[in-house]
Structure formats: C-alpha cells, structure tokens
Design a protein that fits this description.
- By secondary structure, the protein is α/β, with parallel strands linked by helices.
- It has 13 helices and 13 strands.
- Strands 8-7-6-9-10-11-12-13 form an eight-stranded mixed beta sheet, with helices on both faces. A five-stranded mixed beta sheet has the order 2-1-5-3-4, with helices on one face.
- The longest helix has 20 residues.
- Bound molecules: zinc ion.
Length: 356
C-alpha cells in the first residue's frame, strides 16, 4: 500500500527536505507511527503527550479535514493522499524552533499561529528600564515581540536591584538600557533590541517613537510622563501607562482619540514636593513587578486584538489590602492635547510645565 504524504516546510527538516514522502498504514495513526520509524521525530510533531493531534496541526485525507472524518482513526487506502498542515494560515512561515518556543501560547485559540506572527511583527518602545520596564521587557521578549526599544539614561546602581530585576550585580555602573538588552538577547534571539541610553526630550522623542507601534511608559518622573503622553497623542500611538509608589499602583491604556489620555485624567502634575518619589517614600519591589506585568499583558492583548483593554479605565491596585479597583475615566473635551480644541499642538518644555 502506498500513501502519498505532503509535508509542510517546518517538518521538512525531518524528511531530508522532501515535501512529499511515501508511507503506509491502515489509518492515520498507523501511518504516522510508521513514518516515525523512517523519519524519527515526526510523530511528536503531530501528536501531543496525550496522543491527540496537536491543536496547531491539521491533517487532511484527499483534501478533507480528518476532524470531519474519523480523526486519527480515519481509514486509508492505496493511493490516498495525506496533507499535514500546521494551523498557521495566511502565509505564516514560523520556523520550527519558533513553533516549539511559542507552542504554549500558540495552542491558545486567542493566539494561534496568526497571533504569534502579529507579536513577531510588533514594535514596542519601553520608556524606562527600571521597576516597571524590567518585568515588562522580560515578558514581551519571551512572548516574541519582534522589536523592543529600550530608553533609559541612567546607569545601574545597587539600590536598583531590589526591584529592577533585569539588572544583575555585574551590571552595576552599566547603562540600564544596555544591561537590559543583554538579558533580552539571552532570552530570545528572535527579538531585535534597540537601546537609547539617553533622556527623552521634546527634541528627540518624535524621531524615536516613529519607529514603534506602541509605547510603554515605565518612567519615574512627571516631565517624562507628560512628554510621552503628548508625543503619543500627537502621533496617534497607543500608550500603556503605569505608576507606582509604596504599596500602590495605577495603570491605564491610552488609545489616542478613542479614550482619555494622561492629561484627561491629570490635567496638571502635582506641585513639586507634594507627591514623594519612590526614592523618597519607598516602593515594594513586587508592586513594580505586578504593574509592569499589567502593562505587558495590555500590550499583548492589543497586538492580538483580544479581550478588553484598560481604555477608559484606571486600574488602581493596593498590595496591603490586595485589591484591584477599576475606575471609569472619560476623555475630557477640554483636554489641552486631545480635547476638541487643543491648546497644545506641539511638544512643549516639560521641565517648565512641571515647575522643575
Ligand atoms: Zn486628553
């Protein structure tokens, strides 16, 4: 008995680059088990640990999906043609190692091969490689975000290591952006990491963010927060915001024109000296971790187009009470930058605006 088996590109490594091989077996399972004797490894690519066909693999007998026949017990006869199709339609061309690396999220129906390609094509700028940026960057790199920009003008200090988990002892004295890049490259070579060991200003921010689809704000000062907000509104880039202090955190997702921006929520920064910084008041490291991961979760949902974003919502977290509250926030028609008659039409001097 001879059955023609069409092999997809990702599996051709196992078949000596052959796109068509001959096999035999009285049903699909027997066919694959027989093929595995000649081409070891092919069975585990098709069946999972429990013996079911992997959810990102489709099998067809003479152009009919076996799920509409008798599954892996679908009987075969001489001259049948079996096609192995990874469930990554739309010209997706994930490499075999990518399918393996991301398999735990590719099997999620909300991700799949198509979602994974979206992540691999996504470009995210992370402002700040500190308490928020560290966990956010780690998880985005691990999930396969294709391009990550890292902005931070600071160098690693010993007191950073309590929460800025992307930096190690050996990095003390290094630029945070370079230290972070090193770790992201070690996690996932799929990710292109660009570093900007500079302070963002009205003069350089537009040039930098135009290379990215979205921006994560993990900064630690008001001039940068307002600068990043205004630059994102002016250029229409989604912005994932979080702020932390002591045991508290806040997060929101800003989709310019669709929902409120940071200025809609806080039209003005507090006067200098009225709100202490983490340096002055302290911060529990895990609070930064939780908020940084909320930002990365929002980024992934945004690119996958799944779930409900924190658009028009301010998520407020307190670690001591261990509660999350989701408050409704609205776009302010009188907002200076995203309102109906904006008074800010280009970037301003943010140090002066924040009275620093
Ligand atoms: Zn606004």
């Amino acid at each position: 008995m001879s059955i023609k088996v069409r092999v997809p590109t990702p599996l051709q490594k196992l078949t000596g680059n052959q796109s068509e091989i001959d096999g035999d077996g009285k049903n699909i399972r027997e066919l694959i088990e027989n093929l595995d004797k000649k081409y070891p490894g092919i069975k585990e690519r098709i069946f999972d640990e429990t013996g079911n066909v992997r959810r990102f693999i489709n099998l067809f007998v003479n152009d009919t999906d076996i799920r509409f026949l008798q599954g892996d017990k679908t009987e075969l006869k001489d001259g049948d043609e079996v096609s192995i199709i990874p469930a990554i339609a739309g010209g997706s061309d994930l490499r075999e190692d990518q399918i393996e690396r991301y398999s735990r999220q590719i099997i999620l129906p909300e991700v799949g091969g198509i979602g994974q390609k979206k992540l691999l094509n996504a470009r995210v700028l992370i402002v700040g490689c500190g308490g928020l940026g560290s966990p956010c960057a780690y998880y985005l790199a691990a999930a396969g975000i294709g391009k990550i920009g890292l902005v931070d003008s600071d160098r690693v200090e010993l007191n950073n290591l309590q929460r800025q988990i992307i930096h190690f002892m050996k990095d003390i004295g290094k630029h945070k952006a370079e230290s972070a890049k090193e770790k992201l490259n070690l996690i996932n070579p799929d990710v292109e990491v660009i570093t900007y060991p500079i302070r963002l200003t009205s003069l350089n921010i537009m040039e930098i963010i135009k290379e990215y689809d979205v921006v994560v704000d993990g900064s630690d000062n008001f001039p940068t927060r307002y600068l990043v907000n205004d630059a994102c509104v002016l250029s229409g880039k989604p912005l994932f915001h979080a702020g932390i202090l002591k045991f508290d955190g806040q997060a929101t997702t800003i989709i310019p024109r669709e929902g409120p921006c940071y200025r809609c929520i806080f039209p003005e920064p507090p006067p200098p000296g009225t709100v202490p910084s983490c340096q002055e008041a302290g911060i529990l490291g895990v609070v930064a971790g939780i908020l940084g991961l909320i930002q990365s979760t929002e980024v992934l949902k945004f690119f996958l187009g799944k779930g409900e974003l924190l658009k028009g919502k301010l998520l407020v977290f307190n670690a001591l009470e261990m509660n999350f509250r989701k408050l409704n926030i609205q776009r302010n028609n009188n907002c200076a930058i995203c309102g109906d008659k904006p008074t800010i039409k280009e970037l301003i001097d943010y140090e002066q605006f924040c009275r620093i």
